[in-house]
Amino acid sequence: MVDVRDVARAHLRAAEVGVSGERYVLGGHNLRIAEFMRSIAEVAHVRPPLFELPRTVLRALVRIGERLPGASALGNHLGAFEAWQPLDSSKARRALGLDPRPWADTLRDSLEWYRGRGLLPREGSVV
Question: Which residues lie below 8 Å from residue 62, measured CB to CB, with a gap of 6+?
């Protein structure tokens, strides 16, 4: 997980100092889905999920998402969960100065962005 602001900064830096033909992994924090969900719940001040979906259920949801009209993105995103692997962004850190901000900051700012646009209830409001 990496903040889009850090990715944008790294893209600009790559245009300035990146080596033509080289590839850079612009990563941040390697989190498993359960860690990701717990961290969101903590920052949002809500209860985290009570259980994890078994892989068989996740696979079924991917297949359903792939077949539903207009929901192919859902299948793609769910399918990516199963292919999770940690990524090494040390090359981008060295060559481009990538320095991902703390994950909690990204979450807090993201939640506030969504709340500010009325896409999530304000903190403390009753849903």
Answer: 75, 78, 79, 82
| Burial of residue 75 (number of CB atoms within 10 Å: 0-12, 13-18, 19+) | middle
The helices-and-strands tally (H runs, E runs) of the chain is 6, 0
How confident is the model over 21-69, as pLDDT tens digits? Answer: 999 999 999 988 788 889 999 988 889 988 887 878 878 877 787 777 7
Report pLDDT digits (tens) over 70-113.
666 665 666 666 667 788 999 999 999 999 999 999 999 999 99
- Let me know how long the chain is: 127
Alpha carbon distances (Å) from 94 to 13, 26, 74: 12, 11, 35
E strand or H helix at 112 = helix 103-116
Question: pTM, whole model, 2 decimals?
Answer: 0.74
Q: How far apart are CA 123 and CA 127, in angstroms?
A: 10
Where do the domains of the chain lie?
A: 1-29+88-106, 31-85
